[in-house]
Amino acid sequence: MSFLEKLDRLDRRIIFLIIGVAVFVPLLFRVPIKVVQSPIVQDIYEGIQALPEGSIILLSFDYDPSTLAELQPMSEAVIKHCIQKKHKMVFIGLWPQGPKLAQGIMDEMAPRYNLQYGVDYVNLGYKTGGLVVISSLGSAISDPFPTDMNGTPLRELPIFNEVKTLRDFDYVVSMSAGDPGIKHWVMIAKDRFKVPVGGGVTAVSAPAFYAYYNSGQLEGLMGGLRGAAEYETLIDTPGTASYGMSAQNWAHLMIILFIIIGNSTMLILKRRKEKSRVR
Amino acid sequence: MITAFVAVIMIVAYFVPKPEVSVIRDDLQQWFLIVVTFTMVLGLLNLLFVSLHKARKGRKEDRFYNWVTIVSLLGTMAAGFLKGGINSPAFDFIFNYIYIPLSATIFSLLAFYVASASFRAFRAKSVMATILLITAFIVMMGRVPLGDWVTGWAQGTSLDFLYLPNITNWIMEVMNMAGQRAVLMGAALGLIATGIKIILGIERSYLGGE
What we know:
- The structure holds 2 protein chains of 2 kinds.
- Chain A has 10 helices and 6 strands.
- By secondary structure, chain A is α/β, with parallel strands linked by helices.
- Chain A has 2 domains: 3-28 and 246-278; 35-237, Rossmann fold (3-Layer(aba) Sandwich).
- Chain A has a 6-stranded parallel β-sheet with strand order 3-2-1-4-5-6.
- The longest helix of chain A is centred in the last third of the chain and has 39 residues, at 240-278.
- Chain A is elongated, with a radius of gyration of 23 Å.
- By secondary structure, chain B is mainly alpha-helical.
- Helix content of chain B is 79%, strand content 0%.
- Chain B is built from 7 helices and no strands.
- Chain B has helices spanning 2-15, 19-57, 60-81, 89-120, 127-142, 145-151, 164-199.
- Chain B is extended and about 60 Å long.
- Chain B starts with a helix and ends in an 11-residue tail after the last helix.
- Chains A and B meet through helix 2, helix 5, helix 6, helix 8 and helix 10 of A and helix 2, helix 4, helix 5, helix 6 and helix 7 of B.
């Protein structure tokens, strides 16, 4: 068996090993990478940046830990931005695991930035029902969420003195890994209640949302780890995504090399076969 | 009849912002949330009974995994009922140190399979496959700093159109969007047609019928 034939039948474990090393080594050295800004990410940043201090942002955690690597850095970056701008935050989850992921971020950030629960931020928890939950928020927040995640009635939380319905929020940010998610926020919050909606999605699902962005229904969108890294660069706070981009960079390079090698060997072997047939 | 009544109320309430209509809509929405919550209980019981059945009478080699499902389900539930609810240390431990790493690991395996597939299956065997390959190539380069490093020299010059992140943005915002729009509009029209069929009682498969 020639070298090319061996290469063509390369053991998949070798490919796994190469990808493993390509991802692991850059993560080990933690070199942050600044990425080129794209207008679609810049728009969501500018939307939140332009709001007056003390605006109230609804952050919907519509994902679970399987997409944590891509979406959690986005959530962290947006929360950091809201804290920088002294915006107030209300967290909810259309996915059961979402509010717990939000809590994980706030457990770390609240003491660091001296944020007070009930005044600067509130976690309302999870409610099943997707689209209907969003629609109910339009009537009264207390309809689907009579209490917060810990069972405290909303009337006892100062942040809800100013916010009664979905219309009272200045911006909605949905970090979404599927259904229900950002599409439903666009359909109800933006189209029906005219509240600006932006957010983040996984890299594989991002192409499906460009149509909403172009039509103006979506203020801006972060797609995958790259989107999160762009946002971190915009707020000048390198985080998990900026470090992760280095690993993604090498992983993409390896995949590109695999494609080139795979196609080159295929073409050469094909030509050789044709030549031997002619002989 | 019930479906048609509820559907008409919801449609009317969307277009007629009158309190008389929205009160009925709000009530219906509350009913929906209550019913959906019960379906979760139903799902939970279903998972429990199916797993129990398989754990006792299923294939021998699979029985262990069904017990794992049952123990995990009941264990997590018990932790949630402890003092502090989902903020109890036991629930936090399960969520942070078992559930998150396991979920993230399963999803991360995708990178390895994509790499393997890119080597074995992503081949330029036809014109269409070659176009797909070239597009994927450009987008993959343009989405990471690699694209900037390789074609950064072209940025801001008369050869700006060769700058890979710009080409990637163009592919996403023009070519991709055109395709996505067509899919979205097609799906929306299909949804409207199905909705009308359900309201009129022509489509009854959701009730378990033909």
